[in-house]
Amino acid sequence: MNYLAFIIKASFDDFRREKVRTALTSLGILIGVASVVMLLALGSGLKIYIQEQFESLGTNLLIVFPGQVLNEEGGFRRSEATGLGQLFDEKDAKMLARVKLLSGVAPVYTRTVKATYETKVKIGDIFATSDNIFLLRNLTTDVGRVFTESDLRKRSKVVTIGSKVSEKLFGKAENAIGRNIKLDKQLYRVIGVLSSKGGGGLGGPDFDSYIYMPYTSALSFNPQRNFFYFYLKVDGERNITHGKEEVEKVLLKRYNDDDFSVIEQKEILNAVTSIFTVLNNILVMIGAISLVVGGIGIMNIMYVSVVERTKEIGIRRAIGATRNDILVQFLTESVLLSLLGGGGGVLISFFLTLLLNKYFPAHITSTSVIIAFGVSSVVGIGFGVFPARKAAKLSPIEAIRYE
Amino acid sequence: MIKLVNVYKKFTLGNEELTILKNINLHIQEHEFMAILGPSGSGKSTLMYILGLLDTPTSGKVFIRDIDVAKLSDDATSKLRNKFIGFVFQQFNLINKLTVLENILLPSVYRSGPLDFNPTEKAWTLMKRFGIDHRAKSYPNKISGGEQQRVSIARALILDPDVILADEPTGNLDSKTGHIILELLQDLNQRDKKTVLIITHDKTIAAMTKKQIALMDGEIIKHV
Q1: B16, β-bridge pairs
Q2: Which residues in chain B are closer than 8 Å to A316, comparing Cβ atoms?
Q3: Which of A144, A323, B69, B211 is the least buried, fewest Cβ under 10 Å from its Cβ?
Q4: Largest CA distance in chain A
Q5: Residue of B nearest to A321 (CA)
Q6: Portion of chain A with pLDDT greater than 70, in percent
Q7: What's the pLDDT at A207?
Q8: Which helix (H) or strand (E) holds A181?
Q9: How does DSSP classify residue A232?
Q10: Left, alpha or beta for B41 (phi > 0: left; psi -120 to 50: alpha)?
């Protein structure tokens, strides 16, 4: 029989005999691997979640902000350094609408308002914008309709409201249509209720609490018709970079280059993702500490095992085992112990992920499984090598005399 | 075949230096059946460990087939032990978590080169010869002392070594079983043409061999 096959079988025989010890020893690695794999799964799930959220808000988008939003490395600048404010006006919107590569421009003025219907109150955000916003941000209605260009032109005092606003004020969405809600002191007629977009968790914006109205009819809130930012849709993904340059060119006619920034949706996504990636990496490192602790557990047990089996080592040496044979035997055992824990950890994280998937798109990648097994083997070798060397270095004569 | 030249073995215990073996000169020929006789503390076990390449002398030389074993690496020594020597111990020294068959096969696991026979078949032949084939799947601590010693002799023989070193092979057995084991070792010398060395304190056991060496306080006092 092949030597490795023989010692693997012998190791498993040992594990069977020492079930409790084996289980407890590999438990350390199991917990370590499970936490690392779970954290990696949560991390990649979070990335997918953020990405889906962004994509559901429209693709091929450019956003024009006042001031400098991102730093050179692609992260967010410190907020006090950003010159947020009502910088843009209707003239900018009209100029941008003439850029050929753009298929839609939506200027945005937003503020928080108290929306009331009869006695019910809901705090929401108004979006005073153009009808393009619905196209750009993939917004559709469950009931009723979105406001149109004609509403914009006619300065209709109409609103299309988010599902949470409708639920709070009217209960069923059907009841909302045609009712007048009071935003501060102005009355607006509800013409549609939007499909839910989610959000609002994780400290992000709560998309379902928005109230959309034509900016032309929001004069009591925004008499100057100024805007915080623009959403722009570029015609085709290939044209994003070019479109961005065109937009910058247009805006530079009126502003300095550090007064505004044109940002791709993807850049914001990257900045957000990089924050979560850093956070996740820190958590994974904390998880990895338990792997080290598990490894120390294995080392400890292997040292005990070497002492317990001194006589056995002596017998094996007497009948011809080399130092290397003994080293390999003990190393194999510690690696198997570690892999046993690693395998258990991966299995447990699979089940946990399945459970978690009902609430969150946690996702185990094959890379994290490979990493888990790789790391467990390395832990097994790293922490097993010292006891194994101790076993291999025993003098055969002293070992065989050991009682 | 095995030659010891001016072999000394010394230990230091605290400040005291103990000489276990003094100026041992010994030449063991092929196919010899020999006893090393001596009371406990005479150094006979140490002598066996040196002959068996498990221990090294403090000074002097050990030759096996004219090879100076001091010049061999630890690995080469292990391989030589594996190929050349079969041990039979007083305490049997079987591994209790391996079955009888696995114990007998263990030396073949550590064999580096290819074998020109099937070790499992050979193990069965040996077990049948020694009447322990019905114990093949048993564990050593579940069988009698006599059976255990026969297992250890089978283990010593599996790789067909030139020399069998038996250290008090009957020390843990009753006289009847001991006698069977001794006849078995005798048979190995006569039928299998093995060099058999028995280390013992018992003159009647030593008398069964063709040649005896008496050891006292680490010195050879008599060649017979």
Answers
A1: B13
A2: 95, 106, 110
A3: B211
A4: 103
A5: B110
A6: 94
A7: 78
A8: strand A180-183
A9: E
A10: left
What tens digit of pLDDT does each residue of A152-176 get?
999 999 999 999 899 989 988 888 8
Could you tell me which of B204, B197, B103 has the C-alpha nearest to residue B147?
B103
Among B11, B74, B78, which would you mutate to test the A interface (most chain A Cβ atoms within 10 Å of its Cβ)? B78
Q: CA–CA separation, A131 vs A156, rounded Å?
A: 12
Please report the ipTM that was assigned to this predicted complex: 0.93
Domain extents for chain B? 31-55+73-223
How many residue contacts between A and B have a Cβ separation below 8 Å?
A: 61
Q: Looking at the complex, does the CB of residue A397 fall below 8 Å from at least one CB of chain B?
A: yes
Any chain B CB within 8 A of the CB of A398?
Answer: no
- Point out the residue among A13, A17, A396 whose CB comes nearest to the CB of B54: A396
| C-alpha–C-alpha distance, residues B68 and B53, integer Å | 11
Chain A residues in contact with B94 by the CB 8 A cut-off are 315
Per-residue pLDDT at B201: 92
Nearest CA in chain A to B98: A10
* 3-state secondary structure at position A62: strand
- Are B78 and A1 inside 8 Å of each other by CB? no
Beta pairing partners, A89? A226
Torsion angle of C-alpha atoms A369, A371, A376, A381, degrees rounded to 10:
140
List of residues 6+ apart from A330 with CB closer than 8 A: A302, A305, A306, A384, A387, A388, A391, A392
Tell me: pLDDT of B91 over 60: yes
Tell me what the mean pLDDT of segment A199-217 comes to.
76
- In B64-95, which positions are buried (b, 16+ CB within 10 angstroms) versus exposed (e)? beeeebeebeeeebbbbbbbbbbbbbbbbbbb
CATH hierarchy code of domain B31-55+73-223: 3.40.50.300
Residue B165 has pLDDT above 90, yes or no: yes
**Residues of chain A found within 8 Å of residue B83, distances taken between Cβ atoms:** 320
| CA–CA separation, A391 and B10 (whole Å) | 25
Q: Report the pLDDT value the prediction gives residue B71, as an integer from 0 to 100.
A: 93
Tokens read off for A26: 């590999």
End-to-end CA distance of chain A: 30
Task: Provide, as residue numbers in chain A, all residues whose Cβ is less than 8 Å from the Cβ of B74.
Answer: 322-323
Are residues B94 and A315, on separate chains, in Cβ contact within 8 Å? yes
Is pLDDT above 70 for A205? no
Q: Is there a contact between A317 and B78 if contact means CB atoms under 8 Å apart? A: yes
Torsion angle of alpha carbons B115, B117, B120, B121, nearest 10°?
-170
Give tens-digit pLDDT for B7-21: 999 988 888 888 999
Each residue of B65-83: pLDDT tens digit?
A: 999 999 999 999 999 999 9
> Could you tell me which chain A residue has the CA closest to the CA of B110?
A321
